[in-house]
Each structure stands twice: as structure tokens, then as C-alpha cells.
Amino acid sequence: MRSETRTTDSKARLVLPKSFANATVIVEYLSDTEVRVRRARVVAEDDLSFAEESATPLSDRDRDRFLDLLSHPPTPTTALKKAAARHKARRG
């Protein structure tokens, strides 16, 4: 990654390279002394897709299996119980 040192003016303005002209930028505050400025990729609102638009409905068989598992969940395995205990120990 290429790095440059630039100086701000008295109003904390920074002059960026010409390639940033008329661009939308993202300013990320990484720490009290470090800021990252990068060009944003702007997507038109009409080009955005929602998960609901591309979701495939479940087949009758899959739907019935899903609902059956919700109603009658399988008993937890030993591995699942150990994993749950490790998770609880880390969180608690």
C-alpha cells in the first residue's frame, strides 16, 4: 500500500489527489491519531436488491421438515453440550 504525508490547513482541510475530485469518500477513524480516507463505491438505489426479492420458497417437503424440527427438536449431542459449555464459560 502506498502512503503519503500531507498537511492540513488552519481549518483542518486536507487537499487530496485529483483522482478524488467530485468523488464520495469514506472517512474511517482508526484511532485518535490515525484516519483512513478512501473512495466510496456509490450504487444507485434502483440497482440495490433485497434478500426478499431473490429468496426461493421452500418446497412442501422442506417446509414440513423445518416445522417438524421446530416442534420436536432433536436431543443435543455430547459435542453440542461441550460446545455450549465452552461458549458459556467464555461469555460468563
Q: What does this 3D model show about the protein?
A:
- A two-stranded antiparallel sheet has the order 1-2.
- The model has no long low-confidence stretch (mean pLDDT 90).
- The chain is α+β, with helices and mostly antiparallel strands and 92 residues long.
- The two termini are 40 Å apart.
- It is 33% helix and 11% strand.
- It has a domain at 57-91.
- The protein contains three helices and two strands; from the N terminus they run E-E-H-H-H.
The biggest sheet amounts to: 2 strands, antiparallel
How far apart the termini lie comes to 40 Å
Strand order of the largest sheet: 1-2
Radius of gyration: 26 Å
Query: Which secondary-structure class do the elements indicate?
Result: alpha+beta
| Count of separate DSSP helical elements | 3
Q: Report low-confidence residues grouped into runs of 5 or more.
A: none
- Sum up the overall morphology in one term: elongated
Strand content bin: 5-15%
Mean pLDDT: 90
The run of helices and strands is: EEHHH
Percent helix, as a range, is 25-40%
Number of strands: 2
